[in-house]
Design brief:
mainly alpha
């Protein structure tokens, strides 16, 4: 017999999620009715993906909690929902800046409405993160650590980098793309393994493996933060008529690489402190 939990829809976090679903649905519907443009399609696709992804995942969480199927899911549900809310907040922050900056104009009514709704959605997801964190016992493990928060930030920054990349034949730039891809895959894998509660099956301590990865990723990003601007801007001045052109995307990748190298260094330093110093005290 199917059991339902009406309380999941009447709690403050449930009400916030209902409004999140409605507003993200309206947001991507408005943008879809306008259509894409011939330039900067990767940024348009990122914004559309953000709104669709947030809408679908929020609806899925509402349904699973309402039908109480969430208790049967073999993952840390509190960690999963909080991780999604935090990631959605970051994704919507990027979309709320990118879309109005590139795709709106003073007479673009639907684009302006979509931009305003996107900022409202951002506020709602930020409220959800706050509501989740203020309740004791809601977050059981991974997201209660600094490393968990940094992992989410690392994956988000990598997504912004991917939306700004173009195919290249330069060996230096190809190395940087490989760095972005490998670090993204392993960071996402660590998040999924931890939330899925399968780290205990590892034959070696998972914290040690994650620390070694964090050190290697930090070193790899250090090479990328030097190599990318060196090869990307060599004999490549900014075009005079450039308005969010491919050259500007190179700047975005450079800036985001610099942010991620700082995040990875902090993650590596925290992991070293946690594994080699704190555990031995």
């Amino acid at each position: 017999m199917l059991s339902v939990d009406l309380r999941s829809l009447t709690l403050p976090v449930g009400i916030v999620r209902i409004f999140e679903f409605i507003l993200t649905c309206i947001c991507f519907s408005l943008v879809a009715s306008v259509g894409s443009v011939s330039v900067n399609t990767s940024y348009w696709a990122w914004c559309m993906f953000t709104w669709c992804f947030c809408c679908f995942m929020t609806l899925l969480i509402l349904i699973l909690e309402f039908t109480m199927f969430n208790v049967k899911v073999p993952i840390s549900w509190d960690d999963f929902t909080t991780a999604f809310a935090m990631l959605a907040t970051l994704m919507l922050l990027a979309a709320s800046i990118i879309y109005p900056a590139i795709f709106t104009c003073p007479t673009c009514i639907r684009q302006i409405c979509a931009s305003v709704l996107s900022w409202l959605c951002l506020g709602l997801y930020a409220v959800e993160v706050w509501l989740t964190h203020r309740r004791p016992g809601e977050i059981s493990g991974f997201l209660s650590t600094v490393s968990g928060l940094l992992k989410i930030l690392e994956t988000f920054v990598a997504c912004i980098i991917f939306t700004s990349l173009h195919p290249t034949k330069s060996p230096g730039l190809q190395w940087c793309i490989a760095v972005y891809s490998l670090c993204f895959i392993f960071a996402l894998l660590i998040i999924l393994l931890t939330i899925g509660r399968v780290v205990s099956v590892f034959p070696v301590p998972f914290d040690t493996v994650a620390t070694i990865y964090n050190i290697l990723a930090a070193v790899m990003y250090m090479t990328a933060v030097v190599i990318w601007p060196l090869y990307a801007f060599e004999k490549n001045p900014r075009p005079i008529d450039c308005h969010f052109c491919s050259w500007d995307k190179l700047v975005v990748v450079t800036f985001m690489t610099a942010i991620n190298v700082i995040v990875y260094i902090c993650d590596a330093a925290y992991s070293i402190k946690l594994v080699f110093f704190t555990q031995h005290e």
